# Entry
Amino acid sequence: MPLNIDLQQILLHWMNLAILTGVLYFLLYKPVKEFMVKREEHYRSLDEEAAAKLAEAERIKAECQAKLDGADEEIHQARAKAQQAIQQSTEDQLAQAKEQARQIVAHAQAEAEHSRDRVLRDSRRELRKLAAQATKKLAFQADPFDQFLDLAEEEDEHEE
Amino acid sequence: MKQHKKALAVWIGATLVFLIGALLAGTSARTESVQETMRDAVLHSVNQVSLFGWRAVNPGLISAFLVTALLLAAAVLIRIFAIPRFKYVPGKFQLVLEEAVGLFDRMAKGDSPHRCKFLGAYIFAAGAYIFVGTLFELLGLQAVTVHASPITLPAPLSDVNAAIAMGTLSYLVILSGGIAANGIKGVGKTLKEFSLPISMSFRLFGALLSGLLVTELVYYYVSLSFVLPVLVGVLFTLLHALVQTYVLTMLVSMYYGEVSERGEPKESKKTHTAQK
# Structure
C-alpha cells in the first residue's frame, strides 16, 4: 500500500480508540458530568428555595400591610362605637338622674304635704285645747288677783 | 545573596562543561542520511517495532497503546482517588477536570443540541487522545526496532495509519449520528461529505508529521540542538497539540450536529389547502 498504509494497524488503532472512548466515558466523562449536574441541581434547588422563601416573605409582608390598613379602619370603627356607647351611657345616666330627681321631688312634696297636714292637725288640736281652756276659764271665773298677775305677765312679755 | 551567586555560577559552569563535552565528543557515525531519516519518519518502512513478538508495526502504534495506557491509568486513579472527594466548591484539580469535561460537553451541546450525549463522550476521548498523544513525543521514550537500533517513540498521530484511523472513526461517528437521527436520510447527508474522512485524516497526519519532521531535522544536527529545541520541542508541540485537538473535535461536533439535525416535516398538500 502507498505511504505504508496498513489495514491491520488501522484496525488496531480503531480498537485502541474504541477502548479509550468507552473507558474514559465510564471512568471520567460520566461521573464528572453527573457531579456537575448534581451540583447544578443543588444550587438550583437552593435558588428555588430562596425564591420560595422570598415569595412567602412578600406574601406575609402584604398580609401585614393589609392588616395594618384594616387596623386603622377597625380603630376608627371602635372609636366611633365607644363614643356611641359613652353617649348612650351619658344619656342613660341623665335619664336616671332625672328620674331620681323627679322621685326626690315627689317624695319631698309628699313629705311636705304630710308635714303640713300634721302641723295643721297639731294646730287644730292646740286651738281646740286653747278654746277648751278659755271656755273653762270663762265658765269658772278666775280669781281677780290671779287675773291681775296674768295681765301683768302678759304686759312683761310684750315689753320684752 | 552570596549563596545565590554561587549556585548561579555552578549552574552556568556545569552547562558550559556539558556543552564543551558534547562538542568535543562529536557524534557517532550516522547509520542513515538525513534524507533516509526523514523518509522513514514519514513511511516507517525501516524502523518498525515488534508488537509483543507478533508482528512488526509502526512505532506510532506502540505510542498509541502507551498513550491509551497512560490515559486509562490516569482515569482509574482519578476515578478512585479524586472524584469521590469532589466538593461543591471545587479545588484546582477538580476545576481543571470539570473544565475539560465541560468544554467538550458544551461544544457537543452547542453544535448538536438535539443529540449530544454520545458526541460529547467521543470528542472528549478524541480530544484527550490527540492532546496527550501530541505531548507524548516530548517524553522521548525509547523503543528498540526490529533491526535492534534505538528509536524515539513519536506522537501516535504522526503515523499515517493512526491518522487514518482517527479520521475514519470520526467519520463513522458522524455517520452513526446521521443514521440514529434521520435513518437512511442521515446516511445520504453524511455521504455528501465524502471528502471528510480524507481531509480529517490527512490534516492530522500532515500537522503532526510536520512537527515530527522539524524536530527530526533539528535533532539531526548537533549545532541546532541548543536553545532551539526549547522552542521547537516544547512550545510548538504544545501549540499544535491544542490546535489539532480543537480542530478535530470542533469539526466532528459540527458535522455530527449537521447530519443529526432533524429536517422540518414537509407540509402535505391537504394541510396546505386546508390552511388556505
Q: What stands out?
A: Chain A touches chain B at residues 3-6, 8-14, 16-21, 23-25, 27-33, 35-36, 39, 42-43 (CB under 8 Å). Residues 7-140 of chain A form one domain.
